[in-house]
# Entry
Amino acid sequence: MDDDDDARKRREQKGVEAIFSSPDESEDTQASTFVPGRRKDGTPGSVKMLISVLGIFVLFSIYWMLSSYQEDVYFRSYVSDTFSHYFSPVTLLAIGSTGLCLSIAWATAIHFQDQRKRSNPV
# Structure
């Protein structure tokens, strides 16, 4: 390898800032060099906690509505009258199924995109 190949490899390893650095710079600075396009690993703990709390809240709300629907006759008739007035049961089933399929497809696409990024980090 000649000097041009060595300089090119050093720039690729160190990132954009290495283009403007002198060639006699020590190799210890490689760890502290910013590499554009790379994120920190993982999600902050506060965000994970917030997502967990909101998920628990949503699950509890769904449980509460379903148990109220089963136990309270007035709530059941209200829900039945409201939905039957605006939508037929087949329409509600079609809307729900379409939404479920689209959300699964979106989550699958994001999952495969993340897997591809992890396997090829450059």
Remarks:
- The chain has three domains: 1-38, 45-86, 89-122.
- Helices lie at 3-14, 45-71, 73-86, 89-119.
